[in-house]
Amino acid sequence: MNTIIYKIDPNDLDMTKIKEAGQIIADGGLVGFPTETVYGLGADAMDASASAKIYAAKGRPSDNPLIVHIADLASLTDVAVDIPEAAYKLARRFWPGPLTMILNKSSRVPLGTTGGLATVAVRMPSDPVALALIKASGTYIAAPSGNISGRPSPTLAEHMIEDMSGKIEMILDGGKVGIGLESTIVDLTGPVPMILRPGYITKAMLEDVLGEVTVDAAILEENADKNFRPKAPGMKYKHYAPKGDLTVVEGEPQKVIEMINHLTGQCQERGQRAAVIATEEDLEKYQCQQVFCIGTRAHEETIAANLFDILRKMDDMGIDVIYSESFYNGGLGQAIMNRLLKAAGHQVIDADTGAHKNCL
Ligand code: TXA
Ligand code: MG
User: Fold this and answer.
1) Phi, psi at residue 239, to the nearest 5°?
2) Centroid of ligand 2 to alpha carbon of 264 (angstroms)
3) Burial class (CB in 10 A: 0-12, 13-18, 19+), 78
4) Is 196 in the pocket of ligand 1 (CB under 6 A)?
5) How far is the CA of 144 from the centre of ligand 2 (A)?
6) Residue 185 has pLDDT above 80, yes or no
7) Residue 327 has pLDDT above 90, yes or no
8) pLDDT tens digits, residue range 116-148?
9) 105-114 burial by CB neighbour count: b if 16+ within 10 A, else e?
10) What is the separation, in whole angstroms, between the first and last Cα of the chain?
11) pLDDT > 90 fraction of the chain, expressed in percent and rounded
């Protein structure tokens, strides 16, 4: 298949191209498109055979449900039923934006879109290209992240092209996404709202609107060795694993630098290609030849925005061993560390004691 690639300026939408993309969705085809979180791989959410194409293109297990993207609040009642007041409160505060809600699905949404579940994940993205595409399609768009299953989510059109070129009808190139981590998922079908995947919208932000909010115990790092079953099926997969062996080094900052220098020195002696993921503040302190700047600790958003691109670059360069600083502080830290520790298969070294903690 020849994949059409259109550049779209989010601030000056070319409606002819957007309409063409919308028609592809309406006709049951696949379109890669930018959202504010990551690029999505879109198909008609209300057509099970269109959703099935998404699973095939990604190589994704069919029990892993898709997020249904809507463009206005009135559409919520088309895709969900028994909608609690909490959903409207969250929608008023955070939609359009990087928040996905789990609700009971309406009969109109096919089980092929929800991986056989009676619930549905719904999000109204804020990216102007995404919103215009949903409207132009005349339907709702099921879209997982646009990567091949097991690769980092795409944060640039180049990543989408790399993973999906030749497999889908069209890719809309809206440039680099703003956030760079997938949306926060909150389940509103239980007695207390529960975070199933951390993201840009933090627990504190949700609590500010809803009061008590819990976190799925299965996604807490302290339970990583317990084999709990995550409520979001996709969270059980070891996502984003780079080809190189990634370890996160945590502890007192100076000790982290010393430990990473020691470890990369050992790699060099063994003839392995090593790389370091570090913040701008520490770049100069590493002796390793390959040091990737992930952003600045002064603005955690920069760290989130660069993480997936750096993991892809490591693969392209054939890096054997990767050591990363850890990024716990601040509100976004939880989402960043959730993705980074998953990519590392939960391999952590404590720089203060030298202890290896491999939870799994
Ligand atoms: O930011 C995002 O959410 C991006 C953009 C494209 O919107 N999409 C995205 O989709 O990350 P995906 O498919 O890569 O991740 C969706 C996650 C998966 O872990 C899936 O298991 C979970 O949402 N999910 C979907 N429907 C669910 C449901 N009914 N109940 C529980 N988890 C659900
Ligand atoms: Mg994904």
Assistant:
1) -70, 170
2) 31
3) middle
4) yes
5) 5
6) yes
7) yes
8) 999 999 999 999 999 999 999 999 999 999 999
9) beeebbebbb
10) 40
11) 88
Average of per-residue pLDDT across 96-120: 98
For strands 290-293 and 194-197, give the pairing.
unpaired
Q: Find how far residue 123's CA is from the centre of its chain.
A: 13
| Atom of ligand 1 lying closest to residue 117 CA | 29
With a 6 A CB cut-off, is 185 part of the ligand 1 pocket? yes
123 lines ligand 1 (CB under 6 A): yes
Quick one: average pLDDT of 292-307? Answer: 96
| DSSP of 241-266 | --SSEEEEEESSHHHHHHHHHHHHHH
For residue 185, which ligand has an atom nearest its CA? 1
SS3 call for 220: coil
Question: How far is ligand 2, taken at its centre, from the CA of residue 60, in Å?
Answer: 9
Cα of 155 from ligand 2 centre, angstroms: 12
CA-proximal residue: ligand 1, atom 21 (nearest): 234
